[in-house]
Amino acid sequence: MRSTEFDAVVVGSGPNGLAAAIALQQQGLSVLIIEGKDEIGGGLRSAELTIPGFVHDVCSAIHPLAIGSPFFNTLPLQDHGLIYEFPDLAAAHPFYDGTAAVLGNSLEETAKLLGEDEQAYLKLLKPLVADWPNIASDILGPLKFPEHPIAMARFGLNAVTSADFLSKRFKTKEAKGLWAGMAAHSMQPLSNLTTSAVGLVLMASAHLKGWPIPSGGSSTIANALASYFISIGGRIETGLFIKSLDELPPSKTVFFDVTPKQLLKIAGHRFSSIYKWQLERYRYGMGVFKVDWALDEPIPFTAPQARRAGTVHIGNTMEEIALSEKMSWQGQRAEKPFVLLAQQSLFDPLRAPDEKHTAWAYCHVPNGSVKDMTEAIEKQVERFAPGFRDRILAKHTMNTAQVEAYNPNYIGGDINGGVLDLAQLFTRPALRSSPYRTSAKGLYLCSSSTPPGGGVHGMCGYHAAKRALKDIFSINI
Question: Are residues 196 and 221 in the same domain?
Fold first, then answer.
C-alpha cells in the first residue's frame, strides 16, 4: 500500500464508489480508489461465463437509471468508450394466451396498446414524465425540502402507496400485469407501502430515455467511469481487499462503497454506540438466483412483442406475481417465480458469435437461500417460449451465496443493498441529519445502503461526496 496522503480514499469501485471519487476529483482533490477484486465495477462486470465468445453481464444488465442519472449525464462518458444500444421495446410482459403488454419508448403508444386502460395509464404517467426533469435530483437523493414541491408532491402521493393499491386504477389484465412486473423490482410484497415508487420511476424512465443496453457489456459503464476518473488525475488500485482501517493509506476522508454489515467489520470500533446499534439493526431483503444462457437461437417467445424487447417480465398475471413475491419474502420457495429476463444479444452484436445469442435472468428468493432455482426459472421461460430449452448450448448459475461471494455488497443475495421499504427508504442506513455521514469524523458511507438506494445511477456516491466536500473541505457543489 502506498504511504502517500490523499484527500480522499474510496473503498470499492461500484458505480457509487466511482461517482463519489469523480465528484471529489473534479474539485481538485487527490483521490484514490481501492478495489478488493482484480477488476473494477462492483455490479458492473461482464464475463464469458458459459462458452468463449459469449459475453454475459454478471450482475446488472439493463440501465434506465444510468442513462437517466443526473450526475452521470454531466460526464463525457461517450468519449471514454460508453455506447448504448436501444431495444425496439423497453420491456414486454407476456401472458399465457400468447399476448403481451409492452412498455415502449413512447408514452402515448404504450398507453394506446393498453386499450381500455389507455386514459388511466396516461393519467398516472404523463405528469411524472413531464415533471421528471425538475424532480429527478430530489427523487434520487436524500430526504429534504424539494426544489419543486408541487411536482414532488404529485409523485409522492402515488409513490408512497402499495403497488396493490395503485393497480386498482387499471381494469385489464394487461395493464395490471405490466404494472406488477415493474413494481416487483422493489423486491418486496406488492402490498407493501412504497412499492409503487420503483414501478413509477422505471416506467417514466422508459418514456424519457429508454432502457438501454451498454454495447459490449455492463462493464463498459464502469470502464468509462474509471477512464474519465483517471483522465482527471484519479488513481485506482485493485486486488486490495480492505478488512480494517489500518490497511488504508493516510487521508483526510474515507468513503465506503459497502453495506452496513461490512462497514461494521472495517470501522465499527470508531463509531458511537447509537450509530453502531442502528447499523446492527439494518435489514436486508430478498436475494436473487441468477441464470445465464448461451443460446443457439433467440428465445422463441410466443408473443411477438417479447421478441423485440430488451427486458421480458415473466410472471403472467398480477395475482401470480404478487403471490410469488409474497412467498419469497416469507421465506418460501415459489413454484412459479417471477422471472426478470434480458436478451441483450438481440440488440448488441458484441455479446455473442454470429447467429448465436445470450440470455440473462433471475428470480427473487429468500435472503441467503441456496436452493437451485434453475429448473423453476427454465420452466417459467418455457411456458411463454415453447422450445426454449432446445436452444440452450450452455448455462451458468449463481445462488445467493455465490452472488455475495462475487460481490460482497450483495448480502444474502440482496442486490438492493438493503430493504427499500418505508422504514429504510430515506433513513437508510440510520436516522441521522445526513445518511452519508458516519458517527466518526471523516468516514462516509456512499453505497446503495444510502439514499436513493439500489440501481446503477451513482447518486448515492455523488451525494456522499457532496456532503463531505462541504463538511471537510468547505466546498459547495
Answer: no
